[in-house]
Amino acid sequence: MKYPFLPKSNLKLELGEYWNLPLSNGCNAFFVILGIYPKDRVRIFIGMLDEMASEEKLGSDKEYTKILWQSSVHIKTIRECGGLIRGKIQPIVPEEKLDSAGGKFCRVVRGYTTVRWANTDDIAHLKVQRTSGYNVARIVAEKHWVRRQPVHRIADKSGSR
Question: What pTM does this model have?
């Protein structure tokens, strides 16, 4: 696969492919493909990596394993958030979530893969897997990486802030 590219469907995507999302502070957040929905060509399961950088690509020498946020999204999310598929990292396994809020037919899932039927402990402790609109990934990244950054104040000559 030649990088970078903008996918129009999920047919040629692979687990572990990632893209950058330009942030308002000039840096980039990174999202990775955690799952590809097999029954249609426009749904993907993504995760936001615990990584922010000024470059548009991830370093190839680092192992990426931590996901800060995950959701099922439409393929247009990549385009709407201003990114391009930049490369591929080692695939990451999504966190376990519930496919519904409980009940007799509730299952534990990892992305689009069913793990098991949910028991009462699962229902009490796991969150329900989410599906997000086109711009939610941008909102989540901005909230986490830009708005949470500590404000460094420089003291003036008198020592006051």
Answer: 0.86
DSSP per residue over 12-46, as a string?
T--TTEEEEEE-TTS-EEEEEEEEE-TT-SSEEEE
Those residues with Cβ within 8 angstroms of residue 160's Cβ, 6 or more apart along the chain or in another chain = none
At 4, is the secondary structure helix, strand, or coil? coil
99's tokens: 């496919």
Domain range summary for the chain, segments of one domain joined by +: 17-94+136-146
Please classify residue 37 by burial: count the beta carbons closer than 10 Å to its beta carbon, then call 0-12 exposed, 13-18 middle and 19+ buried. middle
Residues 6+ apart with CB under 8 A from 127: 97, 98
Give tens-digit pLDDT for 75-132.
999 998 888 999 999 999 999 999 998 888 999 999 999 999 999 999 999 999 999 9
